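Kindly review this protein for my students:
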Amino acid sequence: MASDCPVRKYMDDPNIQWIHGKPDYTAVNKKYLEERSRKHPVDSLEKLVENLVKTWEMESSHKAREEDWQSVVKETFTINTNGGNRFTLKDNIEKGNYNILMWDSPLYQAQEETNESSHKLFRHAMPNGFAWEVLETFSGPPKVSFTWRHWGKWEANYKDSKPTGETLELTGSCVAVVNENLKIVSIEVFYDPNPMMAKLLNFKLGSKCPVA
């Protein structure tokens, strides 16, 4: 692949305990390289931030034990969405990143899903990957502010909703605080998941909320 293929660190220790087995990013890397809207230089701040967040996402989605995480400051790490609940590393592993990032969404029942079940839902619905890119960065370390885009093609059922074959897209912003070793201290995410969730649920304006 191209030299600017995403770099996810901390995957090669044979003692890592993986939740679903060691992940293979071949398909989603291909999607990212072919469909991204920005091509950042390999030595840019944007590329550094992309790789850092992709490393966190890999650990968040796949590592089962706190001791195997290397992308965050384990003792003090927190993550929250839209000013809501602050979750710790232990929460992140127990609940999973999908549930944490949509904890208060009215169209997604995060409290009813596990880490494993939430990932199964979205991996099944978008089998060829849910790619992610940095759009712009506005400040560098230690307080990194940036915008992002997350996209995937809906090609299989989401629960009882049949796929439309369309590309579903999320955009938002983030403030990540890092230490001098570029370990993440905290992540604050700002975005609206409801338009995408409404499509996945075939929810039409004016109809009864499907999760009421």
Residues 26-200 form a domain with the Nuclear Transport Factor 2; Chain: A, fold (CATH 3.10.450.50).
